[in-house]
């Protein structure tokens, strides 16, 4: 039994494991199932038990695969491509397109996988792609072809109604969006326009290393990044948001799930430091997303707490949202720092920042490179569907009957169960036959029942007060986060203003320096011109003096001649 929720003493998750054909179910042990969940579970059980196992067509089963994603649209679950036997490891071929033109989808009401053909051209990146859903549309980004170093940065849309592919952005090696795999992608809406946000990943050498993000070259020649790429589905333009707070280092092979339109949660993966050293991590990150910025908050394992999953990568995760006050992240499996496959399943309470370990069968949790998806059957009942993956280091794919596992979780308020148990004990104790006046005994029992009912009402009032206080604290914490985000945004704007003023000041100084240089050049020219004029005048004077000297010499010679003639 695992405990979860606002205060861990108040909630419990009850589960029991059973197997039906190629779908395994973990069901609540309590008989008090929520009606909708119980009816669906009974229908699925009846459907499965009425079938002959040998008569089930392979078209109604999911083929073994890994490095894929499962995505929910309404009451359907879709899975496409991934690494699977028989899929050619080539860039493109007729056989590859034939296989990847099929998509399989599952509905809880039938418990069957149905293979459906698509039209148009499917993406070439068939492994470790990123995928998300917006209404009836699926969006695929990036991925690995399966040959050489061929990674992609394409975006392709699949309409789940018409089952038609549409390429929004082809792969472009010159685009300032790193071609990558094993990153994360979520969607959000701003002013009525949907956007895709791609974060991190592992892949080919980036065409452009954008500022504010990190790109680390690894020993195998590949690159790991924490690049944020935003795509406007209306204008079909790319942009890059600013990052604030404790942003994850260059990372890949993590899980990231959307909590609501402006928040997301990220767990685990491989991170690379500035020295190109890889480390598996078990940090949690909470993201606050806006059109221009992504605010990061890092939550590390406290030293005093043991209830925390080990560092891992190649794991799977999904978000559980049954109400506005308590979203949860469920994760399972993956590989540890020694690349050993992990055999565990955990739930993280995003509000309380606490982990709870779930007891599930090995066939559910011991796998890597698999996928998790969630169906909310009722406010108190959740179906977790685990699909595909590897079971060992030899990269052995999970095979039937365990390819797809269905885990059903039911939770309820534990304090109510405790009160009911106490009441039953009191009733049993005081309704036993006793000696003495029967009327007095009955009166005593009624008084005790009334007292117990009063205690129950007090407990309910206390619980309501506690929930109200919990909501107020959550709102206060949210307000603090928003205020902190606003302060950081204002600080960033202030820094931008200071930078702009500094640039303006530098421009003014440069203009003044240029003006001084120009004036100095003009002054030098004037001095040089005057110096040339002075030199000319000096030369003219010298020439005049030499001429006079020659004339005097000539007169002196003539005088001497005349004197000699007189003698």
TrEMBL record:
Keywords: Coiled coil, Kelch repeat, Repeat
Region (Disordered), start-end ranges: 48-69, 547-567
UniProt superkingdom: Eukaryota
Biased composition, class Basic and acidic residues, residue ranges: 547-559
Coiled-coil positions: 438-500
PANTHER family: KELCH DOMAIN-CONTAINING PROTEIN, KELCH REPEAT PROTEIN (AFU_ORTHOLOGUE AFUA_4G14350)
Name of the protein described by the UniProt record: Uncharacterized protein
Native source species: Amphimedon queenslandica
Species lineage: Eukaryota, Metazoa, Porifera, Demospongiae, Heteroscleromorpha
